[in-house]
Design brief:
32 strands, 2 domains, mainly beta, four-stranded antiparallel beta sheet, Neuraminidase, single chain
Length: 395
């Protein structure tokens, strides 16, 4: 509308045939490639968040969801949900009802959210030794209440409860398609071991696989990264350990210690899978190193740096986005409240979004999320000191 420049507009889903007369794929968007960030804007609704999550989505290209599910907990401990679409302009914040099994958010040690291939939104919370789940319908409505999953693992010939405690942490990754499981769940137990559920579906109990952490002590409160079939765990000594089911089991157990970056790892984010594993490792004083491992080769580290002295905020989260094959960006919030991204190929921190942004108002406070719903596009959400969410997008 008023932009007369010629742009490359294409259907970004490689498996979709648009040349024939018959179309049975349903709605699919096309991508307008401009190679630039949009301005930062406030997520409509002005609900102030004490903590928040953007639901993880299936891999871009395998399934397209026309919406993004956002969750936040306000200062009164109430859970809110927004199913946003059309550039955040459609969808309102709605309070999610509480019932007898709802978590007390002041006691939640870890939580996660995904959007599955069928359109449902799912939230899990670890609260006072319980693993709770809440599942919407395909339209994002919350008809059922919270359920206590009571995870169990096989010990000999009997089922025993997975031991959960204050140091337990949860990871959740959505399935890749309509025929796959809803999610892969990973828990760290109060006994220092890892528990894995590869095919979790609502209403199905299933048995959790116990994965012993042979050779190292798991860092308390540190979630295990899930990338395809691979698990990446952080040790109490600041190292990283990999469990790759496709690799031969060596003497000493299924875990392999990975090459370390030039600093102790205080937290990490993972992406990719066995073919190409990506790790963003954070350290003291805001140091971040980006690691890439191809196949069974060594993990090669690259320090992320900025020529103008910009640094990630110490203790803040780093997250990955894989907008298209061969492209991987890590995102972090800086000490100045701005958000930047670094490519795994050069490790240079570059500004995300055009002003006005978080630096024009209250600064971002540390959390950032990146979602790829369409190949070639990235949506980035961050928060500020007032607890309001802001977002921008790349195409």
């Amino acid at each position: 509308m008023g932009d007369w420049r010629l742009r490359d507009c294409s259907v970004p889903f490689g498996h979709v045939d648009v040349t024939g007369d018959r179309r049975d794929t349903g709605q699919r968007p096309f991508a307008v490639r401009v190679g630039a960030w949009d301005e930062w804007a406030e997520v409509p609704g002005a609900v102030r968040a004490r903590r928040w999550r953007a639901a993880r989505q299936p891999v871009a290209g395998s399934v397209w969801l026309p919406h993004l599910d956002l969750f936040l907990v306000d200062g009164d401990g109430e859970l809110w949900h927004k199913r946003a679409s059309c550039g955040m302009s459609v969808g309102v914040w709605a309070r999610v009802r509480s019932d007898g099994d709802a978590p007390v958010w002041s006691g939640v040690s870890s939580w996660a959210a995904v959007s599955d291939a069928g359109g449902r939104a799912i939230v899990w919370a670890l609260s006072e030794g319980r693993l709770l789940a809440l599942v919407s319908d395909a339209q994002g409505h919350w008809g059922e209440g919270w359920s206590d999953l009571r995870p169990k693992t096989l010990s000999g010939l009997t089922l025993e409860p997975v031991p959960l405690g204050p140091g337990s942490a949860l990871s959740a990754v959505p399935g890749d398609g309509l025929l796959s499981a809803t999610a892969v769940l990973c828990l760290t137990g109060a006994d220092g071991e890892v528990y894995l559920h590869k095919g979790w579906n609502p209403g199905e109990d299933g048995v959790w696989e116990r994965v012993e952490t042979t050779g190292f002590d798991l860092a308390p409160g540190s979630p295990v990264g899930v990338a395809g079939e691979c698990l990446v765990a952080r040790s109490a000594q600041g190292g990283l350990w990999l469990r790759d089911p496709g690799a031969p089991v060596l003497f000493g157990g299924p875990w392999q210690e990975l090459e370390r970056p030039a600093h102790t790892v205080t937290r990490c984010a993972v992406a990719g899978g066995a073919g190409e594993l990506l790790i963003a490792a954070s350290g003291a004083a805001g140091r971040v190193s980006l690691g890439r491992r191809s196949g069974a080769g060594p993990l090669r580290w690259l320090p992320a740096q900025a020529g103008d002295g910009w640094q990630p905020r110490p203790g803040s989260e780093v997250t990955w986005a894989l907008p298209e094959p061969g492209v991987a960006w890590a995102f972090a919030t800086g000490t100045d409240g701005t958000v930047r991204s670094a490519s795994v190929t050069d490790g240079v921190w570059r500004p995300v979004g055009r002003v006005p942004g978080p630096s024009e108002g209250p600064a971002s406070v540390g959390r950032v999320a990146a979602v790829c719903r369409i190949p070639g596009q990235v949506e980035v959400i961050s928060d500020n000191e007032e607890g309001l969410l802001r977002w921008t997008w790349w195409s």
